[in-house]
Design a protein that fits this description.
The protein has 117 residues and is an all-alpha fold. It is built from six helices and no strands.
């Protein structure tokens, strides 16, 4: 990207990661994510959600959990779209127990203090 005089930033990398996902090129997607970190840029919720959605679409749940953990270790909270992607992915693959477990995690994160389940 530098040869085009474009200074890479997080939204540019997010677009690249998403393009790699849509092209089913997971190796390039990981290379783009690693490049983002090499540039000392901080992945954001969109970055992690895109990675999580990509791996969910392929039922690569070890990678899904890895990036969910990385996201939370970075101090970010998965948003509703992230949880929806994971829950749907588990459901599509027949992992209903894991889908329910993820739903409970989402409820704990987004529950208001006075809200009943």
């Amino acid at each position: 990207m530098e040869f085009l005089s474009i200074k890479p930033n997080v939204p540019v990398y997010n677009a690249l990661i998403h393009a790699c996902f849509k092209a089913n090129d997971f190796e390039s997607m990981k290379i783009a994510f690693d490049a983002l970190k090499r540039e000392r840029l901080q992945p954001n919720v969109v970055t992690y959600s895109t990675l999580i959605s990509a791996y969910t679409a392929k039922s690569h749940f070890e990678d899904v959990l890895y990036y969910l953990n990385k996201m939370q270790e970075s101090g970010m909270c998965p948003n509703e779209l992230t949880f929806t992607s994971v829950i749907s992915g588990y459901g599509r693959s027949g992992n209903v127990d894991q889908a329910m477990e993820m739903l409970e995690k989402a409820r704990k994160i987004y529950r208001k203090p006075d809200e009943e389940l």
